[in-house]
Amino acid sequence: xxxxxxxxxxxxxxxxxxxxxxxxxxxxxxxxxxxxxxxxVTLAPGGSTGWHYHPGxxxxxVTSGTLTRTLEDCSVExxxxxxxxxxxxxxxxxxxxxxxxxxxxxxxxxxxxxxxSPLSVDADAPxxxxxx
Length: 132
Known about the structure:
Elements (H helix, E strand, L loop, with lengths): L33 E10 L8 E2 L3 E8 L1 E6 L4 E5 L3 E4 L7 E4 L6 E10 L6 E2 L10
Antiparallel strand pairs: 1-8, 2-9, 3-6, 3-8, 4-5, 4-7
């Protein structure tokens, strides 16, 4: 294990799986029984997730490539490697993530989902998207 993965003064070994910086404050919240899932997702160049939403919050760290997300209101957010963001829950927060670049996009996700719910739910594209 590289020494850089153990913060100074900490005697418990461990490995940093992903590190990102959010340009905004992050607020995570979960109520009741919650499934906490940590997973990786890789989007090939030209790939997309399709329009969807999550039943709970997701904390995402982009570890390679550049992720382009189109949100419910058709605004676009671009996050490059080293960036982090939260995806809020619910159908009002549907979105699509795309890899418009030439290298794979890799994400590390921490999902806070109501116990027993799916990771995501497919959704129709909003009228403003032109994806219908």
